[in-house]
Amino acid sequence: MSSWRDQILKEFPPKVAPLTLVADPDGLLLEEGILEGVRERGFELMPFEDHIAFRYAYESKFRSHWDRGEHTDQCVVLRSQASDLGGLPDDLLQAGRKLSFNLGDVFPNLSYPVIAALDRGDLDALYEAQRRHAPGRLGDNATKEFILLHVFEIVPELIKQPSDLLRVLLRRHYRGQSIPKMLDERFIQLLRQSAQFDDWPLETLVTDREAFFSFLQERWPIFLDREAAKGINVVGEGKKSYRLTFEGPVDLPFDHDDIRVYIDNLFVEGLLHSVPHDHADALSKTWVGIGIRTAPVEDRSRRLDKLMESLQASFPDEDAKYTEWFRFARGWSELVLLINEQPDSLVDEVNERAKRLQSQTDDCFTAWLFNRYAGLINLPPVPPAMLHHIPRFLARHIEDDPHAKVALIVVDGLSMDQWLVVRNTIYSCYPNFRFRERAVFAWIPSLTSVSRQAIFAGKTPILFPSCIQTTNKEAALWRQFWSDHGLKPNEIVFIKGLGDGSLDSVSEALSHPRTRIAGLVVDKVDKIMHGMELGTAGMHNQVSQWAKQPYLLNLLNLLLDNGFQVYLTSDHGNIEAEGCGRPSEGAVADLRGERVRIYPDQALRSRVKEHFPSALEWDPIGLPDDYLALMAPARQAFVQEGQHIVCHGGSSIEELIVPLVNIERMGQ
């Protein structure tokens, strides 16, 4: 077989049985490619996790079809061993055929505990290596080394000098590769067998992406001093002393060919930041110029040009993994930030180039959403791909440590580019904060009542149809989720309406000795957005001004001082849009948003679309069947023609890919 998926997908011929029950202890059916293949065959997957939620969805979506004599290819997935299928309800057992899959069947010669730790997206490379090299039965360490070599291209015995190690770490951290802890430990163990890296803090640099880039950042000025001394006649300068946070070698070979190839992208994408230098005029004319701070306009122009080149060359295709769009969105948010720093100063050529890139981004992202978005919903919650995965992602902290305390701050309406504004503002004043950044998908349509409720419910919106038009049930949904995970009422906090004013109520709730989980809604950015008349640049300015105020910083310090692990996310982003006219629909729309209209049936929606042929009809994926969205065309809104507003509700990359950030203080 050409792929490990073929072994599974061949068991899903359509119209064999109305119901298929699958024991899937390793979550193989929840891998992106498998989900896509199963859907292409007409099957719809339904994980059996929450019994009550499952029964509701099962009865409302599928049982009614059977009662009418209609065929469905429904697949119920149980994340446990085949023997546990017998514990399913009798009506399912009587109606369904039974299947089971596990990693041991796919990789019979490799150590099961080791391959079970891998991200399912890495199984392609492992399966190809197994097919090509046909290893005999391997133990734990041999399996680890086989995976390091063939999946992650890491050969510890070939790492002989600093440039070798930096190349491996740059490739890993620049791509954002997730490598299981046990493989990192084996890699470090093998490196430690040589004395070459005794002074390197390997345990930190190998495993911690943010620490690795901070390690590079504080050594970049040292390298520039060496370059200046080498290429310029520097006389009479005393030896500088450098204050370094991270232990390890002071002088790094940034000029080695294997390292230098990364330098431009690291500075362009904001992973490293340019620094001032006494010999900036001379150095800026060399290859290190991208990392030298000179005239702000020239620096910005240079970054803009290189960033647009990088993004143009890295569009994910229609079959790309969702993580590729996360990475693209990170670069895109840097571009949005740069373009709007001084929008009036952009030359026409740059403006036109940016608009073409924006149009191409919208087209590519929309095509991908129609092809792959539905498969995101049932992905495993670790790491989270969508907002409703976040509570289950956080639950592992609570379950693994009986003393753990976790806080989730939801900043309503905060886009990824606006998060960069917040982060840069905080960091410029308080560099002891560290931000571990990732991204998640919001729900389509990107409305607060859909997307924010999904966060606090930890469920898809189809499972809270009675309150999908309001946010009044958020506190109850949050408390119910954590109650189902074993927490008592006095251990759960939910507070909304935050963003300015006093923190007394928050402080009182967090100081209670039994509080373990806190859900906090900050709505200041959303308020700024709904009153914004100056577009994206105005949003950045106002968000920056808010971040400079003490409120957010005081909230973060309050949480950290009380021992909470702090995560920050958003329910949706926003875009600057131009009016395309208001639909004349009377009272038929259930919701009349600026970027989206919601209709109770297809006929009503189709009637309005006739007047807006470029608008997007969105199937109710994960939504109630009578929640039918018509989204305004790209970068447009259902308001007066020609009017410019900042709004949300659609499916642009800025609205849908939002930050999820773990916030720490250095030294904690």
Automatic annotation (TrEMBL):
<dbReference type="Pfam" id="PF08665">
    <property type="entry name" value="PglZ"/>
</dbReference>
<dbReference type="InterPro" id="IPR017850">
    <property type="entry name" value="Alkaline_phosphatase_core_sf"/>
</dbReference>
<protein>
    <submittedName>
        <fullName>BREX-3 system phosphatase PglZ</fullName>
    </submittedName>
</protein>
